[in-house]
Prior knowledge:
By secondary structure, chain A is of the alpha+beta class. Chain A is built from 5 helices and 4 strands, in the order E-H-E-H-H-H-E-H-E.
Amino acid sequence: MKKKSYILALFADFDVAAHSIAALRNSSIKGFKMKDVTLKSPIDHPECAAELGDRPVYIQLFSAMGAILGASLGFLAISSAQANFLRQPRGGFPLIPIPPNMVITYELFILTSVFFTIIACYVVFAIHRVKSTLYSAEISVDKIGILVKADPEAIPGIKQIFSTHHALEIKESQ
Amino acid sequence: MSFDNLTANWSKLRVKRPQPDMYKDAPYKWAMVIDLDACTGCNACTTACYAENNLPVVGKDRFLAGQAMHWLRIERYWGEGTEHTQEFPEQGAQFLPMMCQQCEAAPCEIVCPVGATHHTPDGLNSQVYNRCIGSRYCSANCPYKVRYFNWYNYPETAWASPLEQQLNPDVTVRSKGVMEKCTFCVQRLTEAKNKARTEGRTVRDGEVVTACAQACPTSAIHFGNLADPTSTVARMWMAQQVELAAHPQSKDEQREKEGPLDENAETLRGYRILEELRTFPSVVYLERIRSSEA
Amino acid sequence: MSNPHDETEIAAEPRFVPKPKDIDSDIAWAEINGDVLRSLERPRPLFWVIFFGSLGLFLWGVYCEIYQYNTGLGVADLENPHVWGLYIATFIFWIGMSHSGTLLSAILHLMHADWRKPIYRFAEAMTTFSLMTAGLFVLVHLGRVWQFYYVVAYPSERWTWPNFSSPLVWDATAIGSYLTTSVIFLYFGMIPDLAICRDKATGIRRLFYRAMSVGWMGTDRQWANFRITYLTIACLLIPLAVSVHSIVATDFAVSQQPGWHTTSFPPYFVAGALYSGCAAIITLFIILRYTFRFEQYMTIPILEKLCKLTFAISMVWTYLNLIEYASVWYGTDSFAKQALIYRATGTYAGWWWAMNILGSIVPFTLTFKAMRTNIPAMMIVSLLLNLGMWIERFMIISPTFAHGYYPWTWIDGWWPNWVQVGIILGSFGWFTMLFMLFCKIFPSVSMYEVKEMVYHRRAPKKHRAAHAQPVGQAQPDPS
């Protein structure tokens, strides 16, 4: 695998950044793929991010999985526990009463769904961690950054595109 | 293993209680009849209960603060024509011995968070001291308020030496933080059942009595096995037309026709307290036969 | 970069003039960061005075609990039949306070009410710490505290399990789930802010924030997943929050005791919870606004909206309260009617009427704009409303115990003693300590959400695509 380089450019606002991304996409520079282009920003901006292409989010699948698992396993676990008390009935009610079991199953389904959602999110964060030390603290304040992972030959071309689109600062790494 | 248990016994696990005739084939269902006409309020039953079940005497201050431990209490009621202008204003009280009614559909059993109270196959409401964590929800839910909480650590203070020698060795001494209540002297019942089983029979009527029934001078308290149709208690329940698992009771018109004045010994005067709450208690009280303008 | 935005600002202005004293859309993002991060700096002496005062209160509560633990619950002056005291009342009070955070962060998030953005962070913190405080009371009120774990469904060698039919076990499950989910939600929503703290911190704090911000870089993928996760947890948290206080209500509603056996209890409790939570948010709003000089973010219009929300909830609570009385009064259950008459005319009558006045009449002060915009008045009103709600919980518990089904067990009235009061004050001290620590370690205003709020107010969506707008600066970009 060829060693990749990274280049980070900072912009003042989302529209300029969006134009840069469009330019990158339309350019004929070889040596990088659009999926290696990352937008970094202090707030969320779905329209700008949409310029990068379709990046689907699958978190809610895991939430649904967690919900179903939590509900079914919860109900089974509680009913199995209650079934041990055949010789010790309580209060005239059946040993496996449906309303109390529904209450606890409901709580467990929500809890399990939340756990699955959070774990899925962390796994996604870990998978898409960009292995680069290029970062500017200005991104957490008010600048927009675009990070591109590319072959070293492609870097000057990319840098040119950034400069023509009013980049405030450009950083490179090896 | 639990999952197989679940599927195999599903129908048994879903049954509600009490069912009519559910004790028909059972060997024991302990019940009581208390004749309020015979009760003189002498408190012998309460004292016997203290002695039999290792109840701590809490002292006057704590009694007045409402922290008494009497499993069986004698309640006094005035009214119904009583005049309070008499020389002795406490005259004319009606007495009612109240203890755990061992309800078939006990409201206390269902709310204990740790499951320290259940219904035994004998028909008793059991209290498991070493499981109790003292949330007191059972007492909050009891309509009769016959559950008593150990507010202090009585074993340390209640029986100064040599009083601890008189404690009943068959009964646990409870520490602070656990709930307790009348058990129908379950230690006596267990001993009698074991003895009977060794001899290959069931307990005979009258062979085992609770401490309160034993001590009562007027025989106001009758205790026995409701599942045995020949026992005193079962015959009294049948005579009073009270069915264990029924509410409302279907009684014939005799009661409506007869007034308070009645020489007929078979007058229907048996009732269960707060029956409309559908707790299905195991204690039938026989209403006091009133003299004129009592 | 000549100033194309001059025209656009003029074009935008007629439609987007910010209201006076509302969040200024001219605030620079860097200024937002600076203002909020300033609140994390070394605290002034007054902070330590209040902190150690709360600690002292908490230690007094601990002392009372140790005395009670060693001697027995009798020292709390509880008796038969009044077996539950202020511990349960205050437990319900604290759980109730916790609902406001969820209301603000989750429910208003789904409704796109952006005025919640500066205030929901400390509200969520309040939720988490209220739940932790409520958990203390569950332990304090047990007779054998050291065996509390019997309530947890763990596999034991005796095959004993808790009684799942008991509302207290539902409580344990629900509150455990709610606390876990609230902590997750609070922490997760803070990750972008923790990244800001990481970038600006030095020394050991930098290590702490770096660990806490789990490598947040603000990338588009991270944002997209973050947004969906946040939304999903918010959607799950709302039914959970509603169910938690409903389940606490079923502690009473499934019991057949007179005065408790009402189907309207679950919604009544949830309404009361939102009510006391909103009142507490107003109190903390005023305190934080003054302490950290957040006047630019926690503006008076936001306070006004909070007050209107509190008023609306108070009317819902009033309705459910009155409907409970009406259904008992016109019903056939003589026991329940007797219980209601005892509440209104018996030993607790003064407290009961105080609860109704504080809960139903005092909120009408919120209908006056002069009151809503007057900070000292709102401080007093919010404290009075919370007092009313605390009395409500006391009035649910005590009269039913004092005047139940069985006349022989009726007592004149029950009043708490120094042990109970001491433990309750200790719980307030505990909550205050935790909240103060939170405000000094974590940003109590959500920086990234305020930036979004400012951005969206300055640049309406349909103009944004067409014109280049300055994102983070008030002035046009000189470069």
